[in-house]
Amino acid sequence: MFIDTHAHLFYPNFDGELDEVISRAKQDGVDYILVPATDLKTAKQVIELTKKYEMIYGAVGIHPHDTKDWDSSLISEIENLAKHKKIAAIGEIGLDYYYDFSPKEKQIEAFKAQIELALKLDLPVIIHNRDSNEDMMEIIRSYCGSGLKGQFHCFNGSLQDAMELVGMNFMISFTGNITFKKADSLRKILQHIPPENLLLETDSPFMTPVPHRGKRNEPAYVKLVAEKIAELHKLRIEDVARITSFNAFKIFGIGSKPNTAFTYKLGNSLYINVTNRCNAHCVFCKRKENPVLRGYNLGMERSEEPSADVYIKEIGDPKKYNEIVFCGYGEPTIRWDIVKDISKYVKANGGKTRLNTNGHGNIINKKDITPEMRGLIDVVSISLNTFDPKQYSEIVGLDTSYYDEMIDFAKKSKPFVDKVVMTIVSIDEVDIEHARKITEEEIGAEFRIRPYFGND
Fold first, then answer.
1. Of 384, 347, 338, nearest to 365 (Cα)?
2. How is domain 263-450 classified at the CATH fold level?
3. CA distance linking residue 423 with residue 450, whole number of Å
4. Confidence of residue 440 (pLDDT cuts 50, 70, 90)
5. What are the residues facing 96 on neighbouring strands?
6. What is the pTM (predicted TM-score) of this model?
């Protein structure tokens, strides 16, 4: 269920107890543990741990505290250690200006050299950063576009830095310190980071979460970190586990990619993954390169698209959910007959329905499908994207006539459903207030802004 991506299990305070520590981790739902080394000696210990315990993976590298004697010959030794089959990253590496254990110049030299090694081996990096934000961000920016990927562990930088790192597709993780009484600033940063960029970690044996603070930390306590993330992001703990486990698979290759989800739960609504096919090619859509949402794998070939009966079986009692939402990474009206069959079942059994669409259903089906929504679809949510036909064309990758079609679809839907909603993705290039005015005054629909990192 959980993956602890940072636990130093080679520390002496685990001696003689590691079997019990591993057992407790398993009992509390930990599937895998990633153990980062801090120097060459601990790198060898990490490799031995990966051999002894099936659930343990490792990382090799030189921690900034241990770079005072750095020289370039160490790179070949790290490279040889990194060839072990269960070494998933170069780390723990980085900068630490809080303590004066190693000169800054040596830290920077070692950090850059190990980044270059990670790029050579196509491995992610695990980064330590303490009181070194300015130099750290300058170095990371210099590798933008290089393919560098990695995790900023035990994050303690600024919100601005965090969002910049998210923009560069880095993963960020927090330790048990987010449970501390005086960690409000960290918790506020955490709330702004999309779950798709979060990993779980304990940093064992350090950073023990409440209520065990003051004792040795261990991987079993990663559940407490997950609970705090769930609370702050208003998610279920199983959502956090699923999302962060997929994130760990994506960056470290630990675990496995989840099977295709035909239905998926967000909040108390059940979403129907109808198809990955779409007639549009929106600039912000990830359906081709990474059709994963909140840890659910929505990727699906046409030959894999299930019948209505498969969806109906997974829905069960539709009254369990606030609504049944037709929404995947494709355009649901491409399979309009399937949508209608599922909707008939949902409505016959007391459920509510919502259709999330690009508004091209009439063109796709070569007929006006809006009268067929009567009694089947309660809410139609249409991606307006922008009020400007030219800009709309650029966003969706279709000619400007599709803008008029989308507006026409919205107007035609109104007599046959309870509510029409027009949505905008919050990107800087779109005049949101103008779009709101068009929606409310011209169409007479409800207006909603979808955050770029939103979930539906």
1. 338
2. TIM Barrel (3.20.20)
3. 6
4. confident
5. 130
6. 0.84
